Amino acid sequence: MCKIKRMSRRAIAILMTLSFASLATDDVEPLTTGKFSYPNNARNAISLSFDDARNSQVDVAIPILNKHNVKGTFYVNPQFAMERLEGWKKAVKHGHELGNHTSSHLCTGNFEWLRSKGQGLEQVDLAWLRKDIESTTAFLQKQFNITPLSFAYPCGNTFVGRGKQVKSYVPLIAEMFKTGRTWLDETGNNPTYTDFSQLAGNRMDGMTFEEIRDMLELLREDNKWIILAGHDVGKKGMYTVDKDALEALIVYLKDPKNGFWLATVNEVASHIEEYRTK
């Protein structure tokens, strides 16, 4: 009880969700068994990812990561990346991973800001979306001489169309990339089971270090791979990772006694892929 009193409301809510999930699956035979091995005998893998290629990622996040010799995964929208092009080129040289986040950043039209542009994912098809994704890959190839292996679904939405015409674009991402990361999930990724094309992503925007740490403790069972996702980096906000929380988090994750292997999305996926082929 004392431990729960020290936890944040957000952490308690997550604990309740996970507890109900456990009750619902008590009678289900486990899909996998046995321990999974990460480098340095780590208990869990963790990746720090950031969406959109926002200016604050170059100006604030990357200097913090470089200071601690940590590599992040940044999912790029070309329109934003062009505003700090030289900074992104330096990030690539430092070993940070750049992934694809589409050119249009199209999400569901339920977002009012998107409806003002005239269309959402409900109004496009797979052929249109493929071209949009390919244009971002072409941008990354031209500007950075890299072909991205990682993708993040804008707003975590994985569909096109409406009603009976709805189609998943997960198969398209599985064809085009090694990994696809979603958003606002409530679990980590079981390395022996997870679908690389639908990797769970957990929010770190708007949270204190203590709240993130509490959340990690609730997500890390069964050697899970946890992918944290954020947007701007600066003063804590709805779509902003607090820079002090980020630095404290990195220090915590790098401490061997806490049992995390901190690596990019592609690095962890490659490690898991190698394990699965043995």
Automatic annotation (TrEMBL):
Q: Does the keyword Signal apply?
A: yes
Keyword set includes Hydrolase: no
Q: Which residues form the NodB homology domain?
A: 44-263
GO molecular function, a single term: hydrolase activity, acting on carbon-nitrogen (but not peptide) bonds
The GO biological-process annotations, alphabetized, read as: carbohydrate metabolic process
| Alphabetized Gene3D superfamilies for the sequence | Glycoside hydrolase/deacetylase
- Annotated keywords: Signal
Residue ranges annotated as coiled coil are none
Span of the secretion signal?
1-24
Q: InterPro entries in the record, alphabetically?
A: Glyco_hydro/deAcase_b/a-brl (IPR011330), NODB_dom (IPR002509), Polysacch_Deacetylase (IPR051398)
What is the protein's name according to its record? Polysaccharide deacetylase
**Which organism was this protein described from?**
Pseudoalteromonas luteoviolacea
